[in-house]
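Q: How would the structure tokens look for this protein?
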Amino acid sequence: MENINFKVYTSISTLPENWNEVAASNHFLQTPYLQVLENSAPTNMECFYIGIFENDKLVGTLLSQYLDLNKLESFGERDSCLKTHIRNFIFKNFASHVLFIGNNMISGQNAYALSKEIEHKCLSKLLIDCSNALIIYFKNKGIKIHIVSFKDFYKQNATLFKKNYFNNLYEFNAQPNMIFNLNENWSSKEDYVAAFTKKYRDQYKRAHKKYNGIIEKELSLDDVIFHENRINELYHYVAKNAPFNTFFLAENHFSTFKKQCGSRFRIFGHFLNDKLVGFHTLLLNEDVLETYFLGYDDEIQKNNMLYLNMLYHMTEFGIENHFKKIIFGRTAIEIKSSIGAEPVYMSGFILHTNSFVNKFIGKIFQSLEPNLEWNQRHPFK
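A: Here is the predicted structure in token form.
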């Protein structure tokens, strides 16, 4: 550990030249994507790029994000109940300054990438040290960090972190990440549909019948710029109707993403009578396809089963382009299971910087986390 150190960067232009080489295993720690964050992060977010060094050699890259929840216009407007109002009050007054070690904008283990193996004992201490350095950074700016969250680790890594420097942190499991491990024998959507039981094959046919009249088109950068106001309108409808939000995307986010990442970021528009009524986006990360933000017109969604058709289109894209798995994220988990995705539980770790409050962080977190009841679907023969 004495040879391992880190440096915090606040601008992409100052990163070491071999940053992308070290971050080769994850596109979302490479500079094209980080440039998207720098140019079009949510207005309440500040990003930090952390280099991990062995002596003077860069061996790892790490992303951290600070969120000021006081700047949010809304935490989400779908649920209106006493528990939600209490949660929102607590977040505004006692947990509004949140530091994430990791990426709060996408699901999955995307906090760091390493070019050489670092023992979990060393790595867990490094993550703690990074968070402490950023807490001091904000303290010097007159900002008190309330909560630190170490985000999204698969079980094996979480267990090893817990055995080391994360042993005093509260481990939590939010809604499962819905992941579809694609059958390697599928090469077309016909193979996919043939694998369904009759019930889910009928669902597929019914959804496609409802979709009749809507045209899907992949959008170029010029298309995204032309439709960006409408894209934002559709995105905001879905985002505001989510049960809880910690950020809203910047208005230029989708065009910036397309400009910076090109074919690694795909955006598809759904048109009815030449009007954009929905869109979905995909991130191409080596052999993994990751779903990103989407939006839709609510009336079209209800009448034409637009969301379900989007899920089918994402799956068919993954099959036809030979991805090994699709990460669908944590929302709408029951309907995602109906198209083939399965739940994968991931762990996060959290602490409150007030030592007294931190003693009760587990009970507080459990009381604020919404109860989720759902039935996993099993659509295949």
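The chain is about 40% helix and 25% strand.

The first helix runs from residue 19 to 22.

Upvote if useful.
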